[in-house]
Each structure stands twice: as C-alpha cells, then as structure tokens.
Amino acid sequence: MQVATYYFNQGGGYMYPILIILIIGLFFVAERLYFLFKGLGYGFSFSEEVAETVTSSGFKSAVDKSLEGVGPIANLCHETVSKAQYGVDEAEKSMDNTSAIEMAAMEKNMTWISLCIATAPMIGFLGTVVGMIQAFDDIKAANDISPAVVAGGISVALLTTAFGLIAAVILQLFQNLCLYIIDLQIVNMQKGAVVVMDSIKSHFRKNS
Fold first, then answer.
1. How confident is the model at residue 150 (pLDDT cuts 50, 70, 90)?
2. pTM of this prediction?
3. I want to staple 42 with a disulfide (CB 3.0 to 4.6 A). Which of 69, 108, 135, 173 is the partner?
C-alpha cells in the first residue's frame, strides 16, 4: 500500500483526475451490477413457472405469480400475462414493448462506463506528454542531457500512463461482466417470451 501511495504521489497532478474517473466508473459499475444481479434469481425457470400457472390456473393466477419475481424476465412475464385476457395479439404487442423497455433498462449507464474506460488512458497519455515536455525543459535549463536531469519528467510520464491504463483495464473487466449478464438475460428473456406466449395461445385454444 505504501509503495502504491508513493508511486501515486510521484505521478503528479494528473493522477488525481484518473483516480476520480476510476471512482466514477466503479460507481456506475456497482449500480449496474446491483441492478443486474437482482434479476438473475428470476431467469428462464421463472418464466416456465408462470407459463405452467397459465396452463393450470389461468391468467389471474399467472399475474399473481409474475408479481413474485423481480428483474427483466419477471417484468416481461407480468406485462404479457396481464394483457393476455384481451387476446393473443395484445399479449404479443405488450411482450414486444416490454422487451424493448427492459433491454434499454439493462443497458442504462453502460455508455458512462465506456466513457470512463476511454478517458482514463487519454488523461494518462496527456500526463505523459506533459512529463516529456518537463523533461526537455529540464534539459534546456541545465544544458545537460544526463539521466539525473530528465529522470523526474520521464517518471511522471510513465506513471500517469501506467495508472491510466490500469484504471481502464479494471473498468473494462467489470464492463465485460455487465455485458455478459445482459446478454444472458436477453437470451433468457427471448426463451421465456416464447414459453409464456405458447402457454397463452394454448390456453385460448383449449377455451375456444
């Protein structure tokens, strides 16, 4: 920890903007993971339970069952079976609208994470440029090109670049985790939508 603090202080003023960007990025990551993990407990198996309820007990019981869950799949099931009493077309229309809304909700704030990933290395590179300018200014002032004269500026340049890249790598790993969960939920939503719609169509065929 002391070593990290030492190198952070050695990096100069550009280390602080990178740190702030990292913290902001981690805040958005935490918000996304909290949102996404809430829905993981109600996946494709939950939509199967709702579909079975439609088949065995009808739409009202299926609506009550869908309210037991949280997350995109539970919301999709709820909105679909809520409109099922008005017919298959209304249920399909509600399902399509809800799918689009839930996908947008899952992808919310992902652009901010991407912005932090892109910005952190850029500020690091800016620190590199400033550090190299400082090194050449030191050479000019001392009229000497010895390593001792340029070491300070080059050290700042390397440290800011390294920290910017480290921040970007950390956020990139978390972003990929978020994207993996989103992709998994979208696939489960699509599979669940098919199962629920099949149960609704089957219900109308039996009662026609």
1. low
2. 0.82
3. 69
